[in-house]
Amino acid sequence: MAHLDHFGRPINYLRISVTDRCNLRCVYCMPEDGVTWRPTEEILRFEEIQTVVRAAAEMGISKVRLTGGEPLVRLNVAELVHMLAQVPGIDDLSMTTNGILLSGSAQTLAEAGLNRVNISLDTMRPERFGRITRRGMLEDVVAGIEAALGAGLDPVKINAVVIRGMNDDEIVDFAKTTVDKGWNVRFIEWMPVGTESGLEYRWGDTVVTAEEIREQIELALGGLIPASTSAGSGPARYYRVPGASGTIGFIAPVSEHFCFHCNRLRLTADGQLRPCLLSDEEIDLRTALRQGGDVAQIKALILEAIDRKPRQHHLNECERPHKRVMSQIGG
Ligand code: SAM
Q1: 161-219, pLDDT tens digit by residue?
Q2: Which of 18, 20, 121, 188 should be mutated for ligand 1, with most atoms under 8 A from CB?
Q3: 269 Cβ closer than 6 Å to some ligand 1 atom
Q4: Is 188 in the pocket of ligand 1 (CB under 6 A)?
Q5: Closest Cα partner for 101 from 122, 83, 75?
Q6: Closest Cα to atom 10, ligand 1: which residue?
Q7: Left if phi > 0, otherwise alpha if psi is -120 to 50, otherwise beta: which for 69?
Q8: Predicted confidence (pLDDT) per residue in 66-92, tens digit
Q9: What is the reported pLDDT for 197?
Q10: Nearest Cα to 53, choosing from 84, 94, 93, 12?
Q11: Structure confidence at residue 210 (pLDDT)
């Protein structure tokens, strides 16, 4: 049974950043030169991550998502997948990736026990892809999506962050892929995290709300129909264009924050447990692990993190986390 926090929310989901490094430098996420990477010795080893997941599973956490940085740049990450898939009580093991390295690893990941992937993709135009990511090739991600589908990682979800002037003219094109290709696309509102990267975050201007995205789609493709959701629906609301096999999801962390349903904790690559994505509070698991902490001790720290989960974030009141950019937290 999942543990309830002070506000009655069952905490059953752990997101784990397996590295702070990334092979892309998306303009809204990371500075061009990258950030200062944590030294390797500060990054949790696979055995340490497994101990945390064992402890979490014993406390009723049943869903684990691997993220980063870019999880696929972590050497032998399929081995970690295999180790976590063996942990009793974990019944949903997923990954969020930029897809660049996925075509070569999807099959191995699926065989290791990964259930599904979310792939971040903000544009379907090759030249623009290079500009947004500052170094990636769109064709690699497309090959990654195909490989994930071919490997049976199901469902594959495509996550697009929409920013005015960057890619808002592709909203309808993305929505059409739910009809033409059967993709499951989720539009994510840009959050004011990591904005040191050069783009200016302006509410009512560069930020495109989920409501506005939906209006654009409905104007072009007709009214959306509420859709029942598949595995790991999380904070998104899902719809379908009439006749589409794929779904459209909206994730509106700022305009309609969904903190009242928040079920998650986050583990940073350097072993800090964050009760909330958007608050700087952290509980140090790495020190405990390296001082010989066993599953029981880690469970006590996880309980502390659950107890410290804030009721809600305060982004709407202009409060922002300062300690880390998104790639360091595991967005
Ligand atoms: N490298 C992996 C990837 O690209 O999916 C995992 C880490 S990345 C930080 C996770 C997600 O966070 C990506 O979909 C990215 O677009 C999103 N993201 C980064 N900064 C964001 C921001 N300020 N607001 C909303 N989403 C953001």
Answers
A1: 999 999 999 999 999 999 999 999 999 999 988 655 567 888 888 999 999 999 999 99
A2: 188
A3: no
A4: yes
A5: 75
A6: 331
A7: left
A8: 999 999 999 999 999 999 999 999 999
A9: 59
A10: 84
A11: 96
The pLDDT tens digits of the residues spanning 10-59 come to 999 999 999 999 999 999 998 888 789 999 999 999 999 999 999 999 99
Distance (angstroms) between ligand 1 centre and the Cα of 183 equals 19
Question: Nearest-CA neighbor of 288 among 276, 303, 300?
Answer: 300
Render the burial of 43-56: b for 16+ CB within 10 Å, e for the rest: bbebebbbbbbbbb
| Token output for 290 | 């390296």
CA 164 vs CA 65, 122, 128, 201, 266: distances in Å: 29, 12, 14, 10, 29
pLDDT of residue 2: 93
pTM metric for this prediction: 0.94
Check if 253 has its Cβ closer than 6 Å to any atom of ligand 1.
no
- Which residue has the least CA distance to atom 4 on ligand 1? 98
Residue 10 DSSP SS3: strand
CA dist 255 → 212, 267, 281 (Å): 11, 25, 23
Tell whether ligand 1 has an atom less than 6 A from the beta carbon of residue 190.
yes
Task: Assess whether the C-beta atom of 144 lies below 6 angstroms from ligand 1.
Answer: no
Say what the alpha-carbon torsion angle 59, 44, 262, 95 is, to the nearest 10 degrees. Answer: -110
Pick the atom of ligand 1 nearest to 118's CA. Answer: 5
Compute the distance from residue 138 Cα to the ligand 1 centre, in Å: 16
The answer to whether the CB of 97 is under 6 A from ligand 1 is yes
Give the position, in ligand 1's atom list, of the atom nearest the Cα of 194. Answer: 23
